[in-house]
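Running low. Invent one:
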Amino acid sequence: MYDPASEYVLPLENVLDQLEVNVSYSRTYFLNKLNQELMLNKPKQVHLIDENGLSNEIGKSRWFDPTNAFLNKAPYAYEWLPITVDAYVRKIIALRGFYHKVLVLDLDNTLWGGVIGDDGVEGINLDPNHAVGEAYLAFQKYVLQLKDKGVMLAVCSKNEEAAAREGFTHPNMLIKLSDIACFMANWNDKASNLKIIAETLNIKTDTLVFFDDNPAEREIIKQFLKEVTVIDVPEDPSTYVNALYQAHTFDWPQITREDLLRIKAVEDDTQREILKTQFVDYDAYLDSLQMNAQAGKIGSAQIERFVQLTNKSNQFNLRTQRYTESDVIHRMNDEDYACIYIDLSDRFSPYGIIVCIVLKKSGKTAFIENWVMSCRVLNRGVETFALNLLIEQAKAWDCSELMGEYIPSAKNAMVKEHYIKMGFDQIQEFTYRLDGEHFLIHPTHIAVKEAK
């Protein structure tokens, strides 16, 4: 299991007063150093909760309650118990695989001051020497920082598309069109457009965060797409950053290489679609992608991503088994298990690790304990490439059969027929078998590259 734990909260009072931050023997220095050591040396399965940060948000004089401390031995005022519990709950939910992936932004009076269709690009306010323009630029800078950590950006605006795109040509505009993974500007209702954005990015609508200055638009999304997280945007643009931060919608448990690669891969999907139109034969298109993969049993470098993908994947997930890091390490070091990964790239960009499989040896049977895959690479032969790896491992174990199971969940209906499509025989309602006589290595359009 994962263990959330709190860091030490720095107290309100100190004996040294202003000297407290000027000497290395102060309590402030000691507690900061202790928190830093906790961060650097904690076990990987332990995730810290920034209670000191929460106390800073509230204010130390309000956070602490001396009367409550003496009477009830409470570390802080009971008033702040809900926000502390919320922080723990967010962490646990994220560690169990759910977190938001996309920030969907309005344009007019959200990314800039004014209405692009009426004011033109010269009339929108992004003036760094004007308080309002500076506020919008500060919000854009914060949004780009979210993108840098792996959050995808999308636009959902009621506008003529040409006019909406023109706004991004403003000389002071920090966010560029190239930063936007999906751009929707039309006069359709925004609930429908959000569904299209999710479909385009191959994600669920419950991973969207909607930021729009118009309260009427926010209310429509709350009513008709209840699963979308809607930020209560304040009227004052100078408080936009604070409103988005305090919603804590992108409180991820970790940031992996694949999180950072995702945006580039999504941006390059446009080029892949353009390339696809040049081919009548789909196999020829797949060849033109020049896909190659690094694959095999995981090592220490792949553990974090293996755990992340296994726990967050819901659609292409045959058994919806969740693993802690210690679970994966145990299986990695057990000769009766094989934790297999596939790290894919093509001519446009790397994807990182997009397949994770746990295979278990039991006598002459190789059982697929877990099989998850990123939906971003569907229909490119990755499933067949993965099956080849499973067959090779089953042969290495001298197994005579490969067994698979499908456990239905609320979100994995797309893989209900997966084993049938892969050539397995159905022997029970949700149990499938591939006999050793059919352990054939099938050709794919993916080349194997050596591990670095």
Observations:
- The two ends are 31 Å apart (CA to CA).
- The chain is about 40% helix and 20% strand.
- The chain has a mean pLDDT of 91.
- The first helix runs from residue 27 to 41.
